Amino acid sequence: MGPKKKDEKELNPEQEMKRKFKAKCRFRALGRMVMANTYWLIEAAEQYEGVEDVKRRVAQAVRGKTKKKRLLSITDKALLNKPAAERTDLEKKYIFRIIGGLKCFKRYPNHVKKKLAAVTYFKYYGPDRVIVRQHQEAHALYFIVTGDVIVSHLVYDDLLQQNVSVDIGIMHAGDMFGEVSLLHNILRTATCTTAGHCELLILMKEDFKNVLQASVQRQWDEVKNAMSAFNYFDGLDEVARREGCIVAKMKSYGVNEIILGDGVGVANFVYFILSGRCQMIESLQVCATTRLGRTTYKLYDPYVEEEESEQDMDKKYFAAYKNLNKSDTTSSSKGSREQRSSVEGPQDNATEQASEEPKRRPSILKTTDKSETRESSASNVLRVTLASNSSEQKRANTKENEFSPLATVQEILPTTDAQRDSMRLSVELKITPPPPNLQTYFMQVCQFNPGSTFGFGENMRDRRIVALTKVDCMMLPKIWLLQRNTANIWTRIEHYLNKKIPTKKQLFKDFVTERRWLEFREQLVEDVLSRSNTVNWTSVHDVPYSIRMEEMIDI
C-alpha cells in the first residue's frame, strides 16, 4: 500500500498540469466563442431593465436608442444553443412556437416543426465567413434567419489554367441550403459565404435523416414527376434536374382565383400547368355612340396610338414643308415683282428723259449757250448711269439674299404656333379624361389546359389568368430556364404565344362582329313577328328568368 500511495503522489503533479491545461484551453475557447458571438450577445448589455443602477437607466432613457426588430431574442438564442438532450418538454414547446412563425419553416407541417424544435441549433457567422465549401463533406443543413449568403461555384478558366470562383446567386432570409449533399450523400456542390452578419439555424446530418429526409424527398419526387410530364426537360441531366428540384415551387389555386396578372403572381417565374383549366381574360374599354338608330363602337385605349392614314401622316409630318414651300413661292414672287419694278422704273425714267431732251434742245439752244447744252447732256448721262448702277446693286442684293446661309435659315425655320412635345421625362404629358359613354367589357382570350405554359414575358397589360377549376402549377425561374435553353425552345414558345394569342384590336373586332350579329338577330325576329297576324298573349314575364338573364348578359 505504501508504494502505491507514493506513486499516486508522484503522478499528481502531471495530472494537475493536465487539468490546468484543459481548463486554460476551455477558457480560451470560451473567450473566442464570446468574441465570435459579440454581435448578438451585446444586445443584453444594451438594454438594462434593472432598478439598482439609476444612473444607467437615466442614460439609457436620454440616449433613446431605437430597438432593432429581431426575430429571435437573446433568450431564444441561448435556448437554441442548449444541447438537444438537455431540453425539457416546456422548452421544446416554446421553441416550436418560435420557429413556427419563421419564414424558413412555414413550408413544413406542424408535426415536422415539433421534431425540428427539439434538434435545431442557433449559429452566428460574421461578414465574409465561409459556411460551406465546395467539394467538402456535408455535416449539416442550414436555414437562414437573417442576413444574405453568396453562393459561388468553381469554374475552370482555360486562359488562366486554374479554377476561378464565380458567383451564381444570393440567398436571403427564409432560404435553405445544404440539403442536396445530405439527401444524395455527395460532396458539397457549391461554396456559401456570408455577405454580412448572418444568423442561421442548423440541423445536423443525423437529425436530418430522422426528421426532414422523408418530407424533403417527397417534395423532390413531386417536382421530378412534374418535370417528367413535360418533354421540354427530357434533355436535362441528373445535375440539372437536381438544381430544378431546388429552385422549383409547387402551388395550387382554387376556383376563380387569379393566378397571374393585376399585381398577383410570382414575377420572373414560368408557370407549368399540371392539372386543371384556367382562362386568360382581357378588359376592353369601348365607347358606344348611337346615331340614326345605329350603334357604333370605338375602342378606347390611351396607351395605344390610333391608326393613321396616309392623309393624316401627310398632314402631321409634311404640313410644315408645304407651308415653307408656300412661303418660299410667295416671297420669290414678291421679290421678282420688286426687282422688276426697281429695274424697269429707272430705265423708263431715263429713256423718257433722254427722249424728251432732243425735243427740248431746240428751244434751249435758242436761248442758251453751247456750254449750257454740254452741261445738260452730261447731267442726263449721269442720271442714266446712276439708275443703271442702282438696278445692278438691287440684282446683286437679291442674289446674295437667295444664296446667303442666314437667309436660308430664316426661310426654312419660320416661327410657327404649333407646339412640340418635350422628350424629357421630367415633363408630364397632359392626360385627357376618358369619354363619358365609356363601358368596360371582359372577354375570354384563350384557355390553358394541363400541359400548357405561360409567363415567358407575353403581353399581360389589361389581362389576367383566372382558374376555372382547381389548378396545380409548377413554377420555375425564367433565368434558370434560359440558361438551359436547349434548341432555343423557350424563346420559340414565347414567340408562339405572342403569335397565337389575339391582340386587343383583334378582340375588339370580334366584339363588334358579335354585337352586329346580336343586333341583326333581334331585328330579324322583330320583322318576322311583325308580319304575323296571330295574336300572342305571352309576355316577357312568361319566359324563365334564367333564360332572360342569358340574353341580357353582355359578351
From TrEMBL:
Name of one Pfam family that matches: cNMP_binding
Domain Cyclic nucleotide-binding: 104-212
Positions with biased composition (Basic and acidic residues): 392-401
Residue span of region Disordered: 326-401
Extent of Polar residues compositional bias: 376-391
SUPFAM superfamilies named in the record: cAMP-binding domain-like (SSF51206)
InterPro entries membership: cNMP-bd_dom, cNMP-bd_dom_sf, RmlC-like_jellyroll
Record PANTHER family: CYCLIC NUCLEOTIDE-BINDING DOMAIN CONTAINING PROTEIN, CYCLIC NUCLEOTIDE-BINDING DOMAIN-CONTAINING PROTEIN
Protein name as catalogued: Cyclic nucleotide-binding domain-containing protein
Annotated organism of origin: Arctia plantaginis
